[in-house]
Amino acid sequence: MFETRDFDLAPYAETDTGGYVRHTFCSWHDAGWRSLLVQSFTHAPEAEELPLPGTSDLHLVLCTGGDAIMRTHAGGRPARRRYIPGRMELMVPGRSTVRSYRASAPLSTVQVHIPRATVDRTAAELGGPEPDFEALSAALGAGDPVVEQVVRSLPAAGQAGELYAESAAAFLTTHLLSRGRDDSMPGGGRAAVRRAVAVMRERLAEPLTLADLAAQAHLSVYHFVRVFREDTGETPFRYLTRLRIEHARSLLSGTTLTVAQIAERCGFGSPGALSAAFLSHVGVRPSAYRKARS
Predict the structure, then answer these.
(1) What CATH architecture is 10-178?
(2) Which residues belong to any copy of the HTH araC/xylS-type domain (predicted)?
(3) Which helix (H) or strand (E) holds 210?
(4) Does an H or E element contain 288, and which?
């Protein structure tokens, strides 16, 4: 572990990740950077129930190779995301997770840690409300070509000096914290949420993204996630999943459609995806739910 007070890395000392990752680049050792920590990893083909600590740093992850379904538990319902090249993730500061995955192709990532002191200083200089890291995480998950390009290029800049690292940290932090600050919010939050919920109900069977819903609400992804959660108490993804589960319950009780047919009509990619989500929300599998009501 690195001997520094700038990065919040002490929680990792309690986590044994040696069997799951291999360093191919570390800016601390390979470039001597102290204001920005950049690490490139290759990952084991699979992991089961791997605990990852929450830290106060701004922690960015870019998938640079491979194909895996990442299952993440963060104290609530599990989330599933596909990790393919270009997939970005911002770890919500202070939130520990438990991760499981199985890769169908060799998985590799670039991971960036920006010290919390840099984040707090930048937020103070920008002014305005405190950063909403959960909304920022959701927005970044919908894609940000600027962040992707910068993060992807950092390991190749290992010959650059500390000024380069400090500038990259300042740029990434300013860019991320500025997302959505200048967007207008036409029509008010509640009208935007009503439009989004209407779209969800009309298109339950379709693969909807945050970008799709935000466009229908006439908001940036960042503002959409924040306004939606303020109005409903849930993220758009959780709300949409709940609507799909409610529709699946109705179809299981009132029709003879197969589980596969119901999964397709409710927007789940497979019967297994419906079964996992149904178990998480209802507490039983779809087949058991139907049997109990027959």
Answers:
(1) Sandwich (2.60)
(2) 194-292
(3) helix 210-217
(4) helix 286-292
